[in-house]
């Protein structure tokens, strides 16, 4: 079976403004990401996808702590893959500029 990748760029500006106004500003980014996971979940259902892939990198920004990433993840039902999780900040832009994708080893059982 062939794999397919769906990339979605959704405009969340108005929703983000409402979330920020309604809640504690320090939680805004986590709330934004939870909302995006919910939308990605719906898109996965429609496209019959098995997982959501993100570009998150642990500790790169304040919202990407283990606790916050877990709180974001539980907003959805699909598996969330983070292939860039352990790359240094300087590694990600290099990868995105047309470099080869990292080799992902098979899961350990």
Compact description:
This protein has 109 residues and is mainly α. It has four helices and two strands.
Task: Explain this structure.
The protein has helices at residues 13-22, 28-47, 66-73, 91-96; strands at 51-53, 79-81. 8% of the residues are buried. Strand 1, helix 3 and strand 2 form a beta-alpha-beta unit. The protein is built from four helices and two strands; from the N terminus they run ααβαβα. It is mainly alpha-helical. The chain has a domain at 13-87: Rossmann fold (3-Layer(aba) Sandwich). The protein is globular, with a radius of gyration of 15 Å. Helix 2 (28-47) crosses helix 3 (66-73). Strands 1-2 form a two-stranded parallel sheet.
Give the arrangement of secondary structure elements.
Elements: H1 13-22, H2 28-47, E1 51-53, H3 66-73, E2 79-81, H4 91-96
Parallel strand pairs: 1-2
Helix pairs in contact: 2-3
